[in-house]
Each structure stands twice: as C-alpha cells, then as structure tokens.
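pasting for ref. prot 1 ->
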Amino acid sequence: MFAAFKHTHTLWSRHVSTCTPTARSLVISILSNHPEGLRSPQIFEEALAKNITIDADELAANGLGQQRLPAGVPGVPYPDHPIRSMKYLKKVVLEDLKAQKLAVKFHVPSETPTHIYVNKKGKLRKHLRQGEWRWKLRDSTEGTETP
C-alpha cells in the first residue's frame, strides 16, 4: 500500500515539475487582458476556453509526456492542454511567473466586510467576509524605488 502511494506521488510530482513556455505565454496573455487581476479559477477557465493543444515534442522536452499510471490513480484532467490542471496552474505556472517577477499575487478586501443572515433556527448571524486573492502582471515600475 505504501509503495503504491510513493509511486503515485512521484508520478504526480513529475507532472507538476516544469512550466512549459506555452503555458507561461498563455497565462501572461490572459493576465494582460485583465489589469484588475483574476482569481486562479478564472484564469483556469479562460485558459481552457482557448482551444490550444500542446505538441508532443514540447511535452517530451519538459518531461511531461504520456505516462502509464497504476490502476485507480486518476490521470491529469487535460493532458493535451498547456494548462493541464488547476494544481499545475497554481503550483507551477503562477509560481514560476512569481519567481521571475512577472506576476504578483495580491489581496482584494471584501466590499462588505460582514454578511448578516438568518439561519435555519431563525437566529440572526454575522459572517465575516475575507475578500479574495488575485493574480496580475507586475507593472514595469512596480518594485523599484524612486529617490
């Protein structure tokens, strides 16, 4: 049982180890159209809406070729798309853009800090809204200090 888990982990980690140039340029093009920033699921939806397939040569060059998975192990949701999965987008592509200082993750506070509602028992409740995290392309002047 533990050997199968270890094997599964190494297969999955191999899937998410390298950011392809096609995936990087796709996310940059999506973020460039939205200067206000986007949440990760929104970036993923827009990427999937663009019917782009990645060629086998680029997959092989980045170590992301088709691999045989053990029985019962789910495969990558979109193996022929540059953005293979939400995990690949968040953990590889966006982190790569952040490391290269091309994109920045920022917090947008909620417009209404609390949400007041009546629960099933008829009691008045308050729920604190936290806001959301978004990604945007880093400005060319951002991060530089002026004297």
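and prot 2 ->
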Amino acid sequence: MSVGDWIGIVSLVLVIPLGIATNLLTPRFVAYLERRKLIKSIRSKEQEIKAYHRVKAFKDGIRDKYPHYILLATLCVCFELIAVMLALVAFVNFPISIADFFTVQPARLILGVLTGGFFVLGFGFLAIISDTERRLEKFDEYTAEVRRKWGGDDVA
C-alpha cells in the first residue's frame, strides 16, 4: 500500500470521532467565547467609567489636571528620547550600505523593533493628553456619549 492509501484510511477512521467531538464540544466552546466577551465588555465598561470620573474630577476642580498632564508629557519625552537614542545606536553601530540593504541582521532588526515600539509609546502618551483635553472641552458631548454607550446609571 502506498502513502496515499494510508492517508485515506487514517482520514476515514478519524472523520467519525472528530465529527462527534465537534458536535459535543461546540456548545462549550461557544459558551466560553460568550463568557470571555462578557468579561471583556465588563472590563471595558469599568475602564471607561473610571476615565469618565477622572475627567469629571478635572472638570469639577476636585483634581488638578496639570500634574496628570506633566506626568504624561514626561513619559512621552522619556520614551521619545529612548527611541532616538536607540535609532542613533542603530545607525552608528550598523551603518547601512547598499550591499547590506536587503540582508536582515538580527541586531538591527531588534533595535528597529525597539525603536518603533518606543516611538509608538511616546506618541500614545501624547494622544492621551490630547484626548483628555478634548473630553474636557466638550464635556457635555462626552457625558452624553458615555451615557448612551453604558447607560446613565453608572454615570452620575
């Protein structure tokens, strides 16, 4: 018997048990995915409500927004400086020549990924600052948006 014959026999033997297992395990798998979705939505709601209360505290004057902005701006500057430092290290230690342009060197790849990651983190903190300021400027619209999304019970 050839390899093709054995593959056919094994597949015929496995089709019936795998079909039965699929029919038995599908409801459990679907229930697991629904629980996970529910947990994720609850966590998203908690994070959104927490952010709303922080912006509301800034708006009402309970908390000062400037230490928050200074912390985020400091983190942004630190991550951008680290990214620039890594980019300079990559360009100084691994000069790019035409012959090396299409070859992948692991050290250059690792430095490139780290540099890109730190740039993205820095810009992420900058985006948080601008998003918080936008929420403060348009607080009524932001409140209506949060109430529409999560209901008015938790947003007081």
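The chain has one domain: 3-150.
The two ends are 75 Å apart (CA to CA).
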